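Collaborator request log, item 7. Partner lab (contact: R.S.) asked for a structural prediction of YbbR domain-containing protein to inform their binding assays.
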Amino acid sequence: MDSWFRSKWFVRVVSLAFAVFFYIFVTVDQNSVPNNGESTFPAGDETQNLETLDEVPVNIDIDSEKYVVSGVPEFVSVTLEGSAAVLQPTLRNRNFDVWVDLQGLEAGEHTVELQHDISDKLDVFIEPKRVDVVIEEKSTQEFQVKVDFINTDSMADGYELGDFEVSPQKVTITSAKSVIEKIGIVKAYVDVSGLDEAIDNREVPVNVYDSQGNELSVNVEPENVVISANITNPSKKVPVSVQTTGEPPKGYALSTISANVDEVEVFARSSILKDLEKVSTEEIDLADIKKSGTIETNLALPDGATVSNGKKVEVTVELEQTKVLEGVPIEIEGLQDDLEVAFKDPTNPEMKLTVTGKQSDIAELNREDFRVFIDVKDLEPGTHDVSINVESPDGLSVEPEFEQASIEINETS
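Returned to partner:
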């Protein structure tokens, strides 16, 4: 053993072993002490997490009093990679900004890189990374606001727009000079569908369009205008006409037909009332009516028109009925006592009467209600053609079988 200790190779091996042991001891001792609160494990052993944030807003750093900018996306996607200890608070709080720095750039086209203030302990990937922007000098101009009432055809029946007011009448628009030059019209839309009362201080947004009708994104001051409008309900009084179709059943005729109102007040738009001279009822089929009386029907109003008391009206129908009375005697009037009359044509002193009148008047008629006669006063003996006279109740139309009679007057023996 003494020879081992005296051997130079033995000393070298032992020295090497002590050196290795001491190195390991020092290394482990250093790694066992925390470093600024970070993990005690080597960075290369930490788990790396990857998260993507969509719709991260982009700010614009520029003199907004002097310039306007186009081409900057409203949102970008931001992907973050790093340890959970740093990543999770960043995701949770979102206490960072993404922006484009345009300070110091002149008007014109530029390609700029998006900036951020996210912790440098995370790897940050922004999509898109760069954007092409256009910087233009800001321009401000006043424009008249045109009010456009939409769905006027869908207003409550009979109503239409009257006078209106808009406040303010002009708005101030600010944007790039090139955009201001494109402005064709500035509008405020007012929806009046179903409207049946005045518009009182309704606030509506202002829209800006170019000459092609494309909406422009500009700054409008104020963004809304206030609209007030009168709503009118024009009216016109017109006569009522009863509309019929067909013919009464056989044996009947129409005597009179009339509505229970002579005229109605129609409410409608002026364009409808302008040419409206009367209002008819819906068609009444006379073939279905077999007796006089009252029926209910509707007024045939134009589309968009109304009447104050509703569309229903009562119509009174009076039918005429025809009745034939057979064998009505022909009386002789004015005959002298020493004369007599013989009928040649007709051969008998009687005839048929065809009577037409109101159904109520015809129902109880008989021959005794009529007087048929010839007047032979002052006639000498001989052959004569004389008129046949008919006396009947008022309101009847009488058609006699014969208009005149041929008679022979003789002296009595």
